[in-house]
Amino acid sequence: MSTNEIKKDGQEKNTGRSDFKEGFLAGIPIGLGYFAVSFSLGIVARQANLSAEQGFIASFFCLASAGEKALFDSIAASATFLEIALITLIVNARYMLMSCSLSQRFEEGTPFFHRFLVGFGVSDELFAIAVSRERYKPIFSYGAFLVAIPLWSLGTFFGVLAGNHLPARVVSALSVALYGMFLAIVVPPTRKNTAIRLIVLSSFLSSFLFSILPLLKTISAGTRTIILTIAISAIAAIVKPLKEPEEKK
Questions:
Q1: 64 neighbors 91 (Cβ within 8 angstroms)
Q2: How confident is the model at residue 248 (pLDDT cuts 50, 70, 90)?
Q3: pTM across the whole model
Q4: Strand, coil or helix: what is 93?
Q5: Which residues contact 43 (CB under 8 A, 6 or more apart)?
Q6: Alpha-carbon distance 149 to 177, whole Å?
Q7: Which of 204, 193, 30 is nearest to 127 (CA)?
Q8: 44-53, 156-165, 213-222: lowest mean pLDDT where?
Q9: In sequence order, what are the residues at sequence separation of 6 or more whose Cβ sits closer than 8 angstroms to the Cβ of residue 19?
Q10: C-alpha distances out from residue 158 to 34, 38, 76, 206, Å
């Protein structure tokens, strides 16, 4: 191996460690917010007669608050396996859109197992910190996953143990931190890019209208998110398409 090759290999390893560390640090506030939210989900799981271990496993394999809430509600209602699978699929369908978007950030030739593992861990907040990076590598997401996923699962575990002993107001107050953290991720890019700012504002307005208009407000939150994501992103892609690297040059 030549000197240049050794030097390049060393630089790539250092870059990988740096990306992993940055992902881990970015995942800490997300994980803390997840713990608070999944704690309340653990109480719902307890009402569905699930054990703490079952709640932990459910959260580990379903990293989605709305999807997990639908899962626990379906179990409590004694739904069939097929009904539970369909409900969870519909509520979590927006993550397929996020995975498709994030896959465009992968370097050419990235092995399938990296795409599979990153797709498994995609959530609203973890997706946001990944796409906000100018140079994305899967190891960044792995660092975030290492802290966010265990805290999400542990939150449900301890929520089941706590049962209904904590007041509902306390649980609700703890979950507010997650939304504040998500705003902290979204706001900086909107200050730098006018197009992103308009997209975010139109998303807020559209979501508000969907929640108050007579027919649209009956649509579930998961389906509403899917509709708005496809519609707004499609319009933005037509009106303000991203230029390819060759075009920028």
A1: yes
A2: very low
A3: 0.67
A4: coil
A5: 159, 160, 162, 163, 164, 166, 171
A6: 17
A7: 30
A8: 213-222
A9: 137, 139, 140, 143
A10: 13, 9, 19, 36
The number of beta carbons lying within 10 Å of the beta carbon of residue 185 is 18
Give the C-alpha separation, 132 to 166, whole Å.
36
CA distance 39 to 137: 31
* pLDDT 10s digits, 90-113: 778 888 888 888 888 888 888 888
Q: Cβ neighbours of residue 44 under 8 Å, at least 6 residues apart? A: 69, 72, 73, 76
Query: What is the per-residue pLDDT for 242?
Result: 66
Q: What is the pLDDT of residues 149-204, one digit of tens each?
A: 999 999 999 988 887 676 666 666 655 655 666 677 677 778 888 888 888 888 88
* Residue reference for tokens 């707004």: 232
Residue type, 22: E
